[in-house]
Design goal:
This protein has six helices and three strands; from the N terminus they run H-H-E-H-H-E-E-H-H. It is α+β, with helices and mostly antiparallel strands.
C-alpha cells in the first residue's frame, strides 16, 4: 500500500480589507448616499428625497458615520438661514469606480425585483 501524503492547507478566510469595506458599505443606505453625493453637494432634505424610504434618524446616523469615516464632508453655511450641506470627500470620490462597477453588475445580474 502506498502511503498517502497528508496535505495541510491554510484555513480559508476573507480578505480583511474586503471584510471592512463590506461591513461599512453593507450598512443599509451608506452606498446609496455616497452614490447620491458624487452627483454633487446636497442638503439633508434633498438627500432624503433622493434616497426614498429613509427615515430622518437613520439618514442623520448614516451621514454622521460617513463623515466620521472621512468619506463625506459636512459644511455649515452661515445664514440666515443656516444651511448644512454634504459632499463626497476625495476618499468618497475614490469609491466611485467600484460603485459604478457594482451598479453595472447589478443591472446585468440581479433581477429588478427580488423573487416573491
Amino acid at each position: 500500500m502506498a502511503s498517502e501524503a497528508i496535505v495541510e492547507h491554510e484555513p480559508r478566510a476573507c480578505d480583511a480589507a474586503l471584510t471592512r469595506a463590506f461591513g461599512f458599505l453593507g450598512k443599509r443606505w451608506n452606498g446609496v448616499l455616497l452614490g447620491a453625493l458624487v452627483q454633487g453637494p446636497a442638503g439633508f432634505a434633498e438627500l432624503k428625497r433622493l434616497v426614498g424610504g429613509i427615515s430622518d434618524s437613520v439618514l442623520s446616523e448614516r451621514l454622521s458615520g460617513l463623515v466620521a469615516a472621512g468619506l463625506v464632508v459636512r459644511t455649515v453655511e452661515d445664514g440666515p438661514p443656516i444651511a448644512v450641506t454634504y459632499r463626497a470627500s476625495e476618499s468618497g470620490l475614490a469609491l466611485m469606480p467600484a460603485l459604478a462597477a457594482l451598479t453595472t453588475w447589478a443591472e446585468n445580474n440581479l433581477p429588478a425585483r427580488p423573487p416573491a
